[in-house]
Design a protein that fits this description.
The protein is mostly helical and 67 residues long. The chain has a domain of 42 residues. It has four helices and two strands. GO terms for molecular function: ubiquitin-protein transferase activity.
């Protein structure tokens, strides 16, 4: 409908979604801005591991974000 009427579409998406759509790498800070509790949980899990393992989060576009 937008293409046939040439009307701009006001589309509000989370910045993580925009980065995913434009193939821009996602940082831990981006993830923290979207869900700080999840990042804190991941940091606690990493601390339980002694920091020896490498933890990462897989985003919908299968990008890995180091924690």
């Amino acid at each position: 409908m937008v293409m046939t009427t040439a009307s701009p579409l006001n589309l509000t998406l989370n910045p993580l979604m925009w980065k995913n759509l434009t193939a821009v790498p996602i940082s831990l800070q981006d993830l923290n801005d979207a869900d700080s509790e999840a990042v804190e949980w991941l940091r606690q899990m990493r601390a339980l591991d002694g920091g020896e393992g490498q933890w990462c989060v897989c985003t919908p576009s299968c990008q890995s974000v180091g924690v």
